[in-house]
Amino acid sequence: MKPRYERPGVPSGTTFTCFTRREAAFGFAWHFHREYELTLITAGSGTRYVGTTVERYVPGDLVLLGPDLPHTYASDAARHQSEAAVTQFRHDFLGASFFELPQFAGVRSLLSRSVRGLYFADVPAELRSDIACLPGLTPATQTVRLLDVLHRLADATATPVTRPGYAAAPSTAVRDRVDVVCRYLQEAHTEPVLLDDVARLVHMSPTSFSRFFRRAIGCTLTDYVNQLRVETACRLLTTTSLPVTDIAARSGYRNLANFNRRFRELKAMRPTQYRAAHR
Questions:
Q1: What are the pLDDT digits (tens) for 192-212?
Q2: Percentage of the chain surpassing pLDDT 70?
Q3: Are residues 176 and 126 in the same domain?
């Protein structure tokens, strides 16, 4: 039930990993690793899970994740191929003190901020193209290009992905409990979610669990479930022609007024406006 620890292999002749991930569909594979990960979605759409934040992704989605930050990408469906350019590297992949050099102060700050994950919404097309082309370069050229990419991203506007209260791996016990809960909710959020049932999963009383969840994640259980349900609704709004009433029910809402209210709180627009804007 907890995220799988992943140890990416490093090809011979280099000190980091750079590859194109191409599948019929990305499946939900909750995992973490000690490497930083720069991911550019080049084809397909779906839901991005990072820490306890749930958001849609589409082609062009660009995210830098710090070490030990649990994450996964789950495609909408297998109708279209999913593809991403992925680069994974450790802090010392160029030497233990490389990023301590004064000329890399900006990159050092970028890597420090990535502990919460960074989402880049507005970067030049040329930079996205350079990232997408990284897997096809020779190791020496990859290294030079990656440094250039990180230097340019350090000057780009980035939004933290996870909430301020979330820490990647505050302790093994805390992380394991959070991961059990998040994996369960990813599968069960479209059905009624009872506090007592979720607390029982991690052998805690409902009151203790409520305090624990808010401290560990930075939001309430209800807030997190609403994130999952609204993102499910977004997927259905953009990939089906179902009426909004049916989408509300399939997303876990038994009350249409509550669905509309929660949707507007998180997306700043009505479901019908979201459908029109994203089709």
A1: 999 999 999 999 999 999 999
A2: 91
A3: no
What is the spatial distance between Cα 140 and Cα 11, in angstroms, rounded to a whole number?
13
Sheet holding 31-32, edge to edge: 4-5, 31-32, 71-75, 46-50, 53-57
3-class SS of residue 4: strand
**Beta-carbon contacts of residue 195 (< 8 Å; ≥ 6 apart):** 206, 209, 210, 221
Which tokens in the block code for residue 178? 């959070």
> For the residues 240-263, what does the mean pLDDT come to?
96
Strand partners, 88: 17, 37
Domain range enclosing 64:
4-160
This prediction's pTM: 0.79
Specify the pairing of strand 159-160 against strand 118-119.
Answer: antiparallel
In whole angstroms, give the CA distance from residue 78 to residue 264: 29
Q: How far is 127 from 152, CA to CA, in rounded Å?
A: 8
Q: Say if residues 189 and 230 touch (Cβ distance below 8 Å).
A: no
**Strands lying side by side in the sheet with 118-119:** 17-23, 82-89, 36-43, 62-65, 118-119, 159-160
Domain boundary among 160, 191, 216: 160
> How far is C-alpha 85 from the chain's CA centre?
15
Q: What is the pLDDT of residues 128-141, one digit of tens each?
A: 999 999 999 999 99
Q: How many domains does the chain have?
A: 2
- Please say whether the beta carbons of 117 and 51 come within 8 A: yes
Quick check: 45 and 59 in contact, CB under 8 A?
A: yes
Instruction: Decide if 167 is inside a domain.
Output: no
Of the candidates 82, 86, 73, which has an alpha carbon nearest to the alpha carbon of residue 22?
Answer: 82
